[in-house]
Batch of 2 targets.
Target 1
Amino acid sequence: MKKIEAIIRHFKLDDIKSSLSEVGVEGMTITEVKGFGRQKGHTEMYRGNEYAIDFVPKVKVEVVVTEEKLRQVVETIMSKAQTGQMGDGKIFVSDLSEVIRIRTGETGQDAV
């Protein structure tokens, strides 16, 4: 099993959600996050004063998939999240040693 964490722009969430459903992803977790990468935040004007915004708001999408679906899901996220601009985000893939469904006690792929 693999866990995919994608940090994306807010306005790309609906496209990614519907596209992942089309490729068979049955569940996901969405978290509003803040952070910065190479863009190092930005500045905004408010009532004539300039303010530094160190952390940029983003959305983190977490999905658990089988090894077989990994490439397809990563490519789907990349194609839907990409604008070609700095700040499109990142995708992290990690191994899961165990997955357990709390309600039934199912483990592994059955738990997903």
Target 2
Amino acid sequence: MIYAPVVAALIATLALLLARAFLGPNVFDRALAANAVGTVAMLLLAVIEFYTGRPGFTDLALVYGLLNILGTVAVLKFFRVGDLGEPGEKEEEAA
């Protein structure tokens, strides 16, 4: 089977990325590793789809990818601004 080495390589990549996420020198390296974990999870779902022949995993991979992007943006905004409810920099109103 050709899928076994691909799955093994993706799981090894996932393990290395998780190590990077826990041991990263700063928060942005950890966020990048978490984003890459989501991308590898999407690839793993695609390989499972091809292996099992079930087309429903494509939808799961796409939804997971969209949630991965939104989660990464939210985490980075939280670490930059400090609150997810604030719109960011407030401009001075010219009255």
